[in-house]
Design goal:
heterodimer; A: 234 residues; alpha+beta; Alpha-Beta Plaits; nine-stranded mixed sheet; 38% strand; B: 612 residues; alpha/beta; Transcription Regulator spoIIAA; 3 domains; six-stranded mixed sheet; four-stranded parallel sheet
């Protein structure tokens, strides 16, 4: 009797430099330490049936990461989180797990939005009117950025992928904003791309002091007329 | 130290996890509540150092003491080094990110000669004077161990003391003495005198070296009566009782050996005459299968690793290999834990198991005939015949293997052109064997990878008297082999003769080389073992500027009665035995495996009943 679970987890400061690939291996090893009955794929080289909603850039922290796991036998979701938290490195926590339909589509395909805190510091002339700046930024008819692909460079209008930007706080040499952006397999705007476009628009040049810290707050999908997180899915 | 700045810098370099720490099973202690802060330093990059067995053992062993905190240090890659220097970040330990200049002891492990400049670079980044002469009582004690410690003379200026042999017991004795001296308020010199009387501890400054006019050594003597004339290596008598960690730090990044490593035995009885490990790690001592199984279960439980490998100098020689492997398979099959077996000797039972169990890693099969002809294999006492090899290869092809790796050495004593041709002939025979064995499908898949390394004569081996081939000779041999091995399905790779030359200089070097190492480092040499960072010309400038001829060390044939820089070190195996073996080599006489009959190497004198 297989059981499919969606797990919400966090990735903190102490583990923020772990790459996506290394992170997957880390979770697999923690699952073995915690003796979670993970289901394995068939075939010559079986691997655990585990997938991640969305890759997080190296250096980014998060309160809202999700993974999708299939167990070979039933297990209380709370027990799973508890046992994993005893075996995970500091900085990674399984917050909540819920059982979902085994045939439900993959997390990656249903997630549509990501919410981020973007903290920019080290700006010399941070006194400018940030609210006005962001308003002007968003009132452009299109926001063109250059996307580098394997075939070369391509212009992309990122405006349709920005759903909101709010100022959280302003400080001496920078600003913290909250941004709701498209995320997932249909459309995806990386917060780094937004930050770059915003800094360009504000004519702020990159210097060694400039520091951008990005924190993902959560991921959302649209279900029955409202935005919910993957662990609130019906 | 600005740890916020450090954290930010880590984000700006390649592979930041190298410097991040916080891995699962990393030991966390309050540094204020220990008496000794110990930095275990591996003078190479994280993913190399983290694969090292000795570090895993000593790290957990020291941390099991309540009074000590052992942290890890690895050589920062040049991109990180640059950031550290630009921002005045001193060398730090991974656990606490505290500067190691404030530690009590920094212990380096010397695994290969080409890591020496990294030792200097780590000390310099740590803002610690390089030589013992420049350091005071307030600086950390700088110590070393590992295989290169047996002839540590080229590095004698940089270390306060050096540990010879296996560290499990002597480390505790040293730490106890250190604490004792600290409590009594004794100074560094007094501590060193007392340490020098612990068996296995060598304090280079207490020995003087005198030279003859021709540059060879006339004598090595203790400076006074307070220290022993010879320093005898330490060995652990019973491996089952020796400390072995039940847990290991689980790295985030892919390291070289990313799996549970089970050390099944120490030492080797084969007696290959080129092999330093085979001599210095004698005698053979095995762990019992029961102990190993217990360790395997604990290690898998505590690390979550998906693979176990067996570690030793010659795993096929483990007396209870079949029992161990079968039992490991039985216990871990359902847990999806794979077993990686060294495939040096694939005899019938392994093949049977390989067929039975899905996840024995089937990446490739490796053989090390070392020499291309039976004659030369007899010279080096490599007890493998062509029939053995062809039999194993045929079995492997029958079981579905299509990639075979073969390791050879070039520049061995007594080598002729015929021996080199023999490498090509062997490659052709293996190819023929494949096409005769595998008649049907997949013929194109065959790959025979031949690689040669250049022979480096090492201290404490029967070939310690031998001149290394010149770099020109080695290059000629490599060119010859490139032509000989222009065969379809065969790929040839070889090692840089310049790196082998430098390795040979230090492997049998003396104290006068310390200033060359320092000069080369000052001129920018680090990571000499990494082809992309190796600066041979800079090294040659350093030799030139210090007025030292490197060929004196690498390419000179020694006389029977020459005093070696390591003659005051007693590894158990006697110089007399080594000379006898050298003479037998010249006559192509074999020496049998000493499990069968004692060959009188001298190691049995280290203690009763240590040879089985």
């Amino acid at each position: 009797m297989y059981m499919r679970l969606v797990v919400k987890y966090t990735k903190g400061e102490k583990v923020k430099y772990i790459s996506h690939l290394d992170f997957m291996r880390l979770v697999q090893r923690a699952l073995r330490r915690a003796e979670i009955p993970v289901a394995y794929s068939k075939g010559f080289n079986p691997h655990p049936r585990l997938s991640f909603a969305s890759a997080l850039a190296v250096g980014t922290t998060s309160d809202g990461e999700y993974l999708d796991i299939i167990l070979e036998k039933e297990m209380d979701p709370k027990t799973l989180c508890h046992r994993m938290n005893e075996k995970l490195p500091e900085g990674i926590r399984f917050v909540k797990a819920v059982a979902i339909d085994e045939k439900a589509p993959s997390l990656m395909s249903v997630v549509e939005r990501g919410e981020y805190l973007i903290n920019i510091s080290g700006i010399h002339d941070a006194g400018a009117d940030a609210a006005a700046l962001i308003e002007n930024f968003l009132s452009q008819t299109e926001i063109l950025t250059i996307k580098k692909t394997k075939k070369g460079e391509r212009q992309v209008d990122i405006k349709p992928m920005i759903h909101s930007i709010d100022i959280v706080s302003q400080h001496e040499d920078g600003i913290t904003i909250k941004a709701l952006l498209s995320a997932g397999s249909k459309a995806n705007l990386r917060p780094e791309q937004l930050t770059e476009a915003l800094l360009d628009f504000a004519n702020i040049s990159y210097s060694s002091e400039l520091l951008v810290q990005i924190h993902r707050l959560d991921l959302y999908l649209f279900q029955d007329g409202k935005w919910v997180t993957p662990v609130e899915m019906e | 130290m600005d740890k916020k700045l450090l954290d930010r810098l880590i984000g700006q370099v390649e592979k930041p996890v190298r410097y991040m720490g916080n891995e699962y099973n990393m030991v966390i202690k309050d540094p204020n509540r220990v008496d000794i802060r110990f930095a275990f330093a591996f003078p190479d990059v994280y993913e190399v150092g983290m694969s090292h067995m000795g570090m895993k053992i000593l790290y957990h062993m020291i941390n099991d003491r309540e009074d000590a905190y052992c942290e890890r240090v690895f050589a920062p890659w040049p991109d990180m080094e640059q950031k550290m220097r630009e921002n005045n970040i001193p060398m730090f330990a991974l656990e606490t990110k505290d500067p190691i200049k404030d530690f009590d002891i920094i212990g380096f492990t010397l695994q290969y000669e080409l890591s020496y400049t990294n030792v200097l670079n780590i000390l310099d980044l740590a803002q610690i004077p390089l030589t013992w002469q420049e350091r005071s009582n307030d600086h950390p004690l700088i110590i070393a161990g590992g295989p290169c410690a047996y002839n540590v003379e080229p590095m004698a200026d940089f270390f306060d003391l050096v540990v010879m042999g296996e560290g499990e017991e002597v480390t505790h004795e040293l730490l106890d003495l250190y604490l004792d001296c600290k409590k009594q308020g004794l100074d560094r010199l007094e501590f060193l005198y007392r340490a020098a009387n612990i068996e296995g501890v060598y304090v280079p400054r207490f020995y003087t070296v005198e030279y003859k006019e021709d540059g060879t050594i006339s004598k090595i003597e203790p400076i006074n009566e307070r220290v022993p004339k010879t320093i005898r290596k330490r060995i652990i008598k019973d491996l089952d009782k020796a400390y072995y960690p039940e847990t290991m730090v689980v790295p985030y990044m892919n390291i070289v050996h990313d799996r549970v490593m089970l050390e099944i035995f120490r030492g080797c009885t084969r007696g290959c005459r080129f092999c330093q490990a085979g001599m210095i790690y004698r005698p053979v001592r095995e762990r019992t299968p029961e102990k190993l199984l217990e360790l395997a279960q604990k290690l898998i439980k505590n690390t979550g690793y998906e693979e176990i490998s067996l570690s030793s100098l010659s795993t096929g020689d483990y007396s209870q290999l079949e029992k161990l492997v079968r039992e490991l398979m039985v216990r871990f099959k359902d847990k999806k834990v794979g077993l990686s077996l060294p495939s040096l000797r694939l005899d019938s039972f392994e093949k049977e198991l390989a067929d039975e169990v899905q996840k024995v890693r089937k990446t490739g099969l490796t053989f090390a005939p070392e020499a291309g002809s039976q004659r030369l294999r007899d010279v080096i006492n490599k007890g493998i015949t062509e029939d053995d090899l062809m039999g194993s290869v045929e079995d492997a092809f029958k079981s579905g293997w299509t990639t075979v790796k073969l390791y050879f050495m070039i520049g061995l004593p007594e080598e002729t052109k015929e021996d080199l041709k023999g490498i090509g002939e062997l490659a052709r025979k293996i190819k023929d064997c494949y096409f005769n064995t595998v008649k049907e499908k997949g013929k194109k898949a065959l790959r025979i990878n031949i690689s040669t390394s250049s022979f480096v004569p090492k201290a404490f081996t029967p070939f310690q008297w031998v001149a290394q081939n010149s770099m020109e000779e080695l290059d000629r041999k490599q060119n010859f082999l490139q032509k000989e091995l222009r065969i379809k399905n065969v790929q040839y790779s070889w090692s840089d003769s310049k790196a082998s030359f430098l390795e040979a200089v230090f492997a049998r070097g003396d104290r006068r080389l310390g200033k060359v190492i320092k000069k080369a480092w000052q001129k920018g040499c680090t990571f000499d073992g990494w082809a992309e960072l190796f600066k041979f010309d800079t090294w040659m400038e350093a030799f030139e500027e210090e007025g030292i001829d490197p060929h004196f060390y690498a390419n000179r044939q020694r006389d029977v009665d020459e005093v070696f820089p390591w003659d005051h070190i007693d590894v158990g195996v006697t110089k007399k035995y080594l000379w006898r073996e050298y003479q037998k080599a010249l006559k192509m006489e074999l020496t049998e495996d000493c499990r069968l009959n004692c060959t009188g190497c001298g190691v049995s004198l280290l203690g009763e009943g240590i040879c089985t």
